């Protein structure tokens, strides 16, 4: 499975946000997109997933442009979790997650045993199974985010796209979500592509970092290779100190903002 | 692992069945009381005889020709308005959506009033909305056409980036609705003459003088719209999510939103064509249903229909009984009941109007 953006131009209200961008997404790894506010990260995410059709160029999945995929078939390949989504009122966690099976069901078909099993599996993976009977709107921020991920998992998509999945969460819940995504990638071979604000989180969890500025990719590679003071200065106009350290036998780099 | 199966569904299902049972019983009781309570005296024995020993007595005529059709029509239009509101709220993700607020009802009213007065200008009659005016079978179609036209106008006003902006739709609906209501009033005042009073009662939303002749043209609309609603339960349920996430789940958002709005217009316009624009039913009933049985679409549809029917039948009964021999039109009753209930719900669920 290959997701390929060829020469895409993405615009909102006739404003060009991204111009002539090429990108290939590896469905087996964790990719993080970083960059300053308004650089087009979220727009790129929407463009890569077919939520926003490119004005020029095309995004292809297995060689076929996204707009030629039927919505339901595409949903079995790609799941998207936008930033800060809202849920209909009065649904329990389980009822919410069951909506993830929409693409696998006909208009009149009853939920199959497989549907039920996948929903249970998704809730188990995200550890929301214990409060599946609770109303979604009574959950805390961290629990909600995991329930949303369960919904996306229930789609059984091969790549999961997330727009700032850790925003509004405290540090513990942020790490919980990141660990969950890492586990999904390593154990279930689900590709993860996410927009992240926190450079260190991106560096810690992503196999590949894509740094964007003003609608273009300015750096693309492994965290250790691309996270440098120079890049941070270019991206955020901030002075930073990069510290290299060992953690569990892995070489990591840590970026500390020191001023502007 | 075993606790999981215990934790799921049954509790909410039980609640659903109990609610449906209780509502059905209350509805039957209200239908019964609506036959024996009112300005003219009708006894329980008359009601019993109506089924068991039919005769030509005045009391039985009141039941057969006036109260029975009136209650049955009330039941149908109540369900119509309630489901119309439920559909509209789901697809626009706006808790304030209601056919009367979104210009649907006023579009239907304008079309009906305009065509009736146009026809009576050519062929003067003094009745209103009876078969003497126009073949009554056509009235729902005229209403549907008017409502559809209004809806398209509202869509056009709220179009943004190839999609409907729900907030602009609410605003556009309110504005267009007031313009059309003014137009209706202008027509009534200007050309109403002998019909003005009846037309104004109709505009307030009234079951006054409705007979089986009014019910029959409504039935095919009920049938088709109910079937259509049940057929789109799954897309409808997904439509309640944000556009991006709904599309990510595999839903063709634009297509299904249009379909759902069309069905909603069908429900509302056909009901308006019979009783006039009755407000607040579509607004408050879906919320009550949600409080009662939660957010699952199928359950919401069933319970909303029952609650809507109950509200109109009971509301009409109250309207007929409090100021005897005068009648308070059902539209006024639903507003009286609706506003406080709506405020309570608003308070309780702590909605923030974005």
Walkthrough of the structure:
The complex is a heterodimer of chains A (260) and B (354). With 260 residues, chain A is α/β, with parallel strands linked by helices. Chain A is 32% helix and 30% strand. Chain A has helices at residues 41-49, 71-75, 93-98, 113-125, 141-154, 171-188, 199-205, 223-226, 229-236, and strands at residues 3-12, 15-25, 30-34, 56-61, 64-65, 78-81, 159-163, 191-195, 208-213, 216-221, 239-247, 250-259. A 6-stranded mixed β-sheet of chain A has the order 6-7-8-3-9-10, with helices on both faces. In chain A, helix 6 (171-188) links the parallel strand 7 (159-163) and strand 8 (191-195). In chain A, helix 4 runs antiparallel to helix 5 and helix 5 runs parallel beside helix 6 (171-188). Chain A starts with a strand and ends with a strand. The relative contact order of chain A is 0.16. The model of chain A has no long low-confidence stretch (mean pLDDT 92). With 354 residues, chain B is mainly α. Chain B has one domain: ABC transporter involved in vitamin B12 uptake, BtuC (Orthogonal Bundle). Chain B has 16 helices and 2 strands. Chain B has helices at residues 2-7, 10-36, 44-52, 58-92, 104-122, 139-158, 166-191, 196-203, 212-215, 219-231, 233-239, 243-248, 253-275, 281-293, 297-321, 330-349, and strands at residues 159-160, 163-164. Chain B has a two-stranded antiparallel ribbon. In chain B, a hairpin with a 2-residue loop joins strand 1 and strand 2 (163-164). The two termini of chain B are 41 Å apart. At the A-B interface, helix 2 and strand 6 of A face helix 11 and helix 12 of B.
């Amino acid at each position: 499975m290959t997701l390929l953006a060829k020469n895409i131009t993405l615009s909102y209200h006739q404003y060009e946000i991204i111009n002539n961008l090429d990108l290939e997404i590896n469905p087996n790894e964790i990719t993080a997109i970083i960059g300053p506010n308004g650089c087009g990260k979220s727009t790129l995410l929407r463009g890569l997933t077919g939520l926003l059709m490119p004005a020029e160029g095309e995004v292809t999945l297995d060689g076929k442009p996204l707009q030629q995929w039927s919505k339901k078939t595409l949903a079995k390949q790609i799941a998207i979790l936008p930033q800060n989504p809202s849920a209909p009122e009065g649904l329990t966690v389980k009822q919410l997650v069951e909506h993830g099976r929409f693409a696998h069901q006909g208009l009149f078909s009853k939920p199959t045993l497989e549907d039920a099993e996948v929903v249970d599996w998704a809730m188990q993976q995200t550890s929301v199974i214990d409060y599946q009977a609770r109303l979604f709107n009574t959950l805390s921020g961290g629990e909600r985010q995991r329930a949303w991920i369960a919904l996306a998992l229930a789609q059984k998509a091969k790549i999961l796209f997330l727009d700032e999945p850790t925003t509004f969460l405290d540090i513990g819940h942020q790490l919980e979500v990141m660990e969950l995504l890492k586990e999904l990638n390593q154990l279930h071979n689900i590709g993860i592509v996410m927009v992240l604000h926190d450079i260190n989180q991106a560096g810690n969890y992503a196999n590949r970092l894509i740094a964007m500025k003003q609608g273009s990719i300015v750096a693309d590679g492994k965290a250790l290779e691309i996270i440098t003071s120079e890049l941070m200065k270019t991206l955020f106009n901030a002075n930073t100190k990069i510290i290299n350290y060992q953690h569990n036998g892995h070489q990591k780099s840590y970026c500390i903002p020191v001023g502007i | 692992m075993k606790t999981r199966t215990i934790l799921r569904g049954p509790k909410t299902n039980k609640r659903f069945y109990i609610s449906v049972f209780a509502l059905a019983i209350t509805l039957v009781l209200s239908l019964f009381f609506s036959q024996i309570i009112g300005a003219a005296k009708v006894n329980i024995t008359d009601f019993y005889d109506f089924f068991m020993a039919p005769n030509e007595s005045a009391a039985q005529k009141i039941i057969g020709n006036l109260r029975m059709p009136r209650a049955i029509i009330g039941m149908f239009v109540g369900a119509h308005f309630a489901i119309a509101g439920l559909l509209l709220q789901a697809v626009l993700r706006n808790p304030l959506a209601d056919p009367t607020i979104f210009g649907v009802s006023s579009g239907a009213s304008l079309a009906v009033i305009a065509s009736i007065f146009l026809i009576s200008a050519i062929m003067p009659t003094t009745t209103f909305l009876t078969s003497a005016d126009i073949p009554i079978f056509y009235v729902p179609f005229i209403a549907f056409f008017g409502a559809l036209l209004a809806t398209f106008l509202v869509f056009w006003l709220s179009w943004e980036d190839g999609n409907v902006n729900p907030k602009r739709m609410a605003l556009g609906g309110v504005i267009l609705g007031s313009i059309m209501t003014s137009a209706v009033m202008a027509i009534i005042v200007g050309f109403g003459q002998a019909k003005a009073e009846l037309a104004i009662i109709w505009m307030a939303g009234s079951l006054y003088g409705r007979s089986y002749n009014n019910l029959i043209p409504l039935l095919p609309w009920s049938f088709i719209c109910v079937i259509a609603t049940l057929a789109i339960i799954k897309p409808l349920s997904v439509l309640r999510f944000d556009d991006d996430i709904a599309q990510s789940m595999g839903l063709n958002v634009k297509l299904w939103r249009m379909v759902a709005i069309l069905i909603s217009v069908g429900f509302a316009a056909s009901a308006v064509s019979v009783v006039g624009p009755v407000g607040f039913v579509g607004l408050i009933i879906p919320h009550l249903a949600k409080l009662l049985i939660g957010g699952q679409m199928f359950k919401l549809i069933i319970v909303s229909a029952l609650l809507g029917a109950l509200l109109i039948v009971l509301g009409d009964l109250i309207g007929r009984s409090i100021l005897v021999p005068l009648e308070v039109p059902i539209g006024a009753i639903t507003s009286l009941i609706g506003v406080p209930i709506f405020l309570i719900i608003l308070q309780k669920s702590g909605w923030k109007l974005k």
